[in-house]
Design goal:
The complex is a heterotetramer, with two copies of chain A and two copies of chain B. Chain A is α/β, with parallel strands linked by helices. Chain A is built from 17 helices and six strands. Classes of the chains: A alpha/beta, B mainly alpha. Bound molecules: NADP nicotinamide-adenine-dinucleotide phosphate (2 copies).
Chain lengths: 450, 95, 95, 450
């Protein structure tokens, strides 16, 4: 029996791997997710067959409660709130690793096991509170700005020292539970401290990193309870989180340490040193221009998510196409508040994924575009990233909407985006500002068309 | 006899390399579902939690295990469902 | 205690997946060196042979082991050198 | 100590993996091979530190003898003989696995170990003789044709049954060495029998498959002696061989079973049912055409290897470029007698790899090509694969040289290529045949230029 359970874990690991492989292309991704879920099912069933289990009561209660909460949350969440949801789930995973590490503690544990226990508690704890803070910032339950205070680094260093010391003491005197509690408390605190100085729009990087940590915590728990499947699955997740983090940092041309420690986007808007004047446009005039355009590029950003404008965008896109206009979407890798955020929203509104062009595909075509419609995007279309060496986002690859013949920018005010900097795009000769909530502005355009 | 740690390290090394190869191939379009799908997999801790929650002894480890089962189940069930919901929306242009 | 076979199977499964991922990315240009490079790696049997050839007992296993060391060494040394010779020739156009 | 050895194996496996990863691009491939070699060194050193080893004499003798032979062979082999060399090395690897499996046999072995021992002997034996036959066919030491005889399948089935029976008996009575010898003998015989019915040009597929087997044999030996590094390295090789086999079969549009069992290319040239006449051209006339061309594509095949013409080809290419002509190479994935064979030969002659275009890159450009020079290629430029549904190679993707304005075909006669079929290309209006050994013909062209 026991050996069968073990081989079931091999099968389950193979399913996770195959599932992730299938996640690599939009056509097979859904199947891939199902395969991965089957892998999880196999692992859970195998775990339940373990002969050491004599009492299923608490397991079942745990399942039912957790499963119901998870299912309800998954069903109810709005697509625009996906980033928060992932952060929250991730935090629960971290807490689970913390509890498993703690529960695996027993009087006979050797030092190697103690170290893995401490690791799973530590990483799990940081993941838990860190994810909660990320959740708070993204959902704006707490302020989304970067919280910086004098002496922050000293405090953090003290916490790290405390954790190291308490962990060492714990390994030497595992019987004395005060060290254990100290480690737990400090790692929970540390999770909070590392995330508060990071601005809201950088949360995706944080979540992705914490996601990687929750994988590593599962890995450590796997070493602690001697379970292969935890190690394999945990390291797959660990690797995936790290790669996503790298991809995002690269897309912003910022280093990971800049993201984590610089308090970027903490709100100090740079002096406006931009020349040119702002030319607003009315919905009606915008309609006439669009009506005559033969090639339109739509570039969405975080504002589209805020306005929940994805459905009206799709409607506008259809009207334009009926009018004989070619419409493409240009998706910046870090538009919105999560990598691929715009893709998910537009997919929700039934925009086919082959109409969504990546930055590198849309930029060379921009010169042939009659009208580029920027919907609630700001930093990801900021030409300062290309032109002004003194800009904090200098070097970040952006979508060059300013090469299009005309640019419409849909936003509510002249407020800056997440990076907190001026956008010279708004002052360019070929730019027209269509002020107002994106959903309402587009609704207006749609009414003009029909 | 080769000790278990050696095997575990081997497995760790191989899985990390494999994870990198697999994830590097996922296109930007799918990064959000990938993130939530990977997140669901990290709920694998539930497997470790199950054996701790079912010992039948009414001690601390048992309670901790039960709590871990509940939390990890939120992660697993919620994670897979939400990923599926997202992926179900991705459609190719109909010819 | 988890028996060694389980670990070995895990390792086998992971390595096969990893092998597929790695090799699938090699461009056609490099298929000949890839073939001879992979061939050189298969000479890893030398590691198994060494422990058999060094028992110090003058029995059959020892002789077989020594033969295996010699044959596998041809494979390893020849394979790596020939691959290196080939790859040294691949050059990019000088600007 | 022992645990250190084991962790050294982990390092060594990581080096193999990283090395293979680096092999994925021409710029880093050489470094990758070195990294993989370092991995091997680490593994060997770790194995030598094993405390069970008391006598190094035979190990050293084995190393010195094997290493010297390997080094000498690697130094002396001609690039054109690379396929044979790989086949030969591969055979030695297989034999080594057979010997290790045999030596691992001991009176206390349990059934699982016995099975892995039998597997490593069996796979190792088939790999050994199979590779030797492949070597013989490629080097033309033995006839390269497919050997087919009546009742072949019956004989092979009997051998398989014999192997199965003897293996089963061996597992039941491991002490009785007659079963062991029977398995060894039969697997050596089987290796011969499976390769003789396969034609010479299909040998790359066979070698690649046998390469995969030698990996699997190492894997089985790893299970037999409980060694992780053998398993990891063996399965990497196993996977690599299988993928290369698939790639080749796909490039020929043939199934693996067609390659292995059909006796393809066994020499029966199809009735010539091609219309049109053959138009030979002299070296001098060819020179005038080339002199005036502004875009030339060179498509090499097995004949370039036979004629050892790669260096003069490079010379011609330089002369053409000095003359202001754009020159590209079109490389078919199965041109020659090994995947990537042409690339290696041209690399030897210092042709930069970015000038070597793959089939899918050159085909769309073919219409703009003034002269396509086919050097000793035949099947890989056969338009029948596109046009004639009855052709045995119908469906195989080929390089469409016939779309070029003019085609020069350099070969010695009207003989067919490996597939043994007529080539309608030779009869097309825009084709000119430049008969003679490729090296001499090109030499003539070079003399005209200078
Ligand atoms: N996606 C990721 O994975 C990721 C990761 C890390 C960092 N980031 C950062 O996040 C930022 C993303 O750039 P982005 O261009 O998408 O967004 P952004 O630069 O934050 O700009 C969003 C814009 O939308 C407008 N907006 C808000 N609500 C709106 C509504 N209801 N209707 C119309 N407009 C509205 C806002 O202007 P008004 O207030 O004037 O309306 C704002 O300028 C970048 O700085 C990026 O570096 C993203
Ligand atoms: N590369 C691989 O991995 C691989 C694997 C499996 C199968 N194959 C098979 O191998 C074949 C390869 O096609 P291929 O076009 O490269 O070769 P091919 O079809 O075998 O033709 C080679 C041609 O070269 C000519 N030739 C020989 N020696 C010559 C010399 N000294 N000077 C000038 N010409 C010479 C021969 O004609 P003359 O005798 O008239 O000179 C012959 O027609 C395909 O059928 C393919 O399916 C290849």
């Amino acid at each position: 029996m026991d050996i069968l359970i073990q081989f079931a874990y091999v099968v389950s690991a193979a399913l996770f791997i195959y599932g992730l492989k299938q996640l690599g292309s939009p056509a097979t991704a859904r199947r891939g997710n199902t395969i991965s879920a089957v892998g999880m099912l196999v692992a859970v069933v195998a775990a339940l067959l373990d002969q050491g289990i004599v009492d299923f009561q608490w397991i079942v209660i745990g399942f039912v409660v957790g499963g119901a909460i998870g299912a309800a949350a998954a069903r109810l969440v709005q697509m625009t709130s996906m980033p928060e949801m992932v952060a929250l789930f991730n935090g629960f995973g971290g807490m689970a690793s913390l509890l498993v590490g703690w529960a695996a503690l027993n009087p006979d544990a050797v030092t190697f096991t103690l170290i893995t226990i401490i690791l799973s508690i530590l990483i799990g704890g940081v993941t838990f509170t860190g994810s909660l803070i990320a959740y708070g910032k993204l959902s704006e339950t707490i302020g989304s700005g970067a919280v910086l205070f004098r002496g922050q680094q000293v405090v953090n260093s003290l916490i790290v020292l405390g954790i190291l010391g308490a962990s060492a003491m714990f390994c030497m005197e595992p019987g004395d539970s005060q060290w254990l509690f100290l480690v737990i408390g400090l790692s929970l605190l540390f999770g909070i401290m590392v995330v508060i100085p990071i601005g809201g729009a950088d949360m995706p990087v944080v979540i992705s990193l914490l996601n990687s940590y929750s994988g590593l915590a599962a890995c450590a728990a796997g070493f602690a309870v001697d379970n292969n499947i935890l190690i394999v699955a945990g390291s797959l997740v660990g690797a995936s989180g790290i790669i996503l983090t790298q991809i995002m940092c690269k897309a912003m041309n910022r280093s990971l340490s800049n993201v984590l420690f610089s308090g970027f986007g903490s709100g100090k808007v740079e002096e406006a040193s931009v020349e040119g004047e702002i030319k607003p446009i009315s919905v009606e005039d915008a309609y006439y221009v669009l009506e005559a355009a033969s090639n339109v590029a739509i570039v969405p950003g975080y504002g589209m998510a805020v306005a929940q404008a994805q459905h009206v965008v799709k409607e506008l896109c259809e009207l334009l196409e009926q009018n004989g206009t070619e419409v493409n979407f240009g998706i910046h890798p870090v538009a919105g508040r999560m990598p691929g955020h715009m893709n998910v929203l537009l997919a929700e509104a039934d925009v086919p994924y082959d109409q969504l062009l990546e930055m590198d595909d849309i930029n060379p075509r921009m010169e042939n575009v009659d009208v580029a419609i920027v919907i609630g995007a700001n930093d990801v279309v900021n030409p300062a990233a290309r032109e002004s060496e003194s800009s904090p986002i200098y070097g970040m690859p952006v979508i060059n909407v300013d090469s299009a013949r005309t640019v419409f920018v849909l936003k509510r005010s002249m407020a800056s985006g997440f990076a907190g900097i001026e956008n010279p795009l708004f002052y360019k000769d070929n730019t027209r500002m269509l002020f107002g909530d994106a959903k309402e502005s587009i609704g207006g355009l749609i009414r003009e068309f029909s | 006899m080769i000790p278990a740690e050696v095997f575990l390290t081997f497995i760790l090394m191989l899985s990390i390399f494999l994870g990198f190869e697999l994830i590097n191939k996922v296109p930007a379009t799918l990064h959000t579902p990938l993130m939530s799908g990977a997140n669901a997999i990290s709920g694998i801790t539930v497997v470790g939690a199950i054996s701790l929650a079912g010992t039948g002894e009414q001690d601390l480890a048992n309670w901790l295990g039960a709590g871990a089962v509940a939390l990890a189940s939120i992660n697993v069930v919620g994670g897979y469902l939400v990923t599926d919901r997202m992926l179900a929306m991705f459609k190719k242009k109909e010819g």
